[in-house]
Prior knowledge:
The protein is α/β, with parallel strands linked by helices. The chain has helices at residues 50-59, 94-100, 121-141, 174-187, 212-219, 238-246, 269-279, 291-309, 317-324, 332-338, 346-359, and strands spanning 27-28, 36-37, 41-45, 65-70, 85-89, 106-109, 146-150, 160-163, 194-200, 203-204, 224-225, 232-233, 236-237, 257-261, 267-268, 285-286, 327-329.
Amino acid sequence: MHxxxxxxxxxxxxxxxxxxxxxxxxxxxxxxxxxxxxxMKIIVTGITGFIGRNFAxxxxxxxxxxxxxxxxxSYTDNLIKAKNIEYIITDFSVKNLSQTFADADxxxxxxxxxxxxGITEERFIEGNYNLxxxxxxxxxxxNVKQIVYISTPGVTGFGKRLSTEKDSYAPRGMYEQTKxxxxxxxxxxxxxxxxxxxxxxxxxxPEDTRRIKMYRNIRDRKFVLxxxxxxxxxxxxxADVVQGITKSVCNPNAYDEIFNISPETDVTVKEYLxxxxxxxxxxxxxxxxxxxxSILLAGLIEKFCNCVLKKDGFVSKNKIDFLAIDHSTSCAxxxxxxxxxxxxxxxxxxxxxxxxxxxxQLI
Length: 363
């Protein structure tokens, strides 16, 4: 596949706050100024994932070279083809990574182990913590300027509305615990590599199939909300997450910082569910039996499904907590420092998500 030349970009303005960092991802021609092409070599892990596939579509043919790392076992048939995007098979060892990272300006590290039924503690540690350590070490060896790590606001736990980056670590499950471990590995590594840690909140959008079953159940009036619905969350459209990533790469304002990536305003759980129901022309079933009873029943159902049916329960303690406890985040810091601007409210983002689902015959 054709590669673009690896041209180092030159920054000629000392007042970095005044710049719009979108220019780093395109070629700029201005008749009134010197003509320059800002081109970078960027390594990307996790390109086969939900956010990764959306990222690839957004940066295709934009003037930079993207080297996307995949495993030998990765499914790549649905990946976008573009002249500036190259896919390389790797074993993610430090040796191979450091060789691939040579002359790279930045590494966007999205790869990781997400949570689902049956995932062992060892797989979480390997996929989130050990892999991140390898990537960080390879960046150091190859003298990469910056690593952009995609984490989760779940590292600060539940129980807060409009949580900020200053909140203490309080991870709940193994996924969040190993994401915290990965963050700390980056924060304490030292060396000359600049880091940016992004925490996209409750991401949804095209290419995401994890919540299709819930959408169908709401459409078919099979979904029941059993708690108050007053807790707050921050559903974030994937295009806004991609924007947060692109505005962080090789942006000095993002160096050695952590940013929440979330919508302009949070919503209550009831508002979130009612917006989905409204799209389908129906109403949510709301029978508030209280948090304690909901947790008790969910625990019994979860145990039966796990132990007897050997599968994930259709309801669980974690799912009840997700809808019953505040866990929204504030994106104020990202707005102030890197110019992030959330462009999708939930209704707009959900409508576009449904268009994709219909195109793929999932709804």
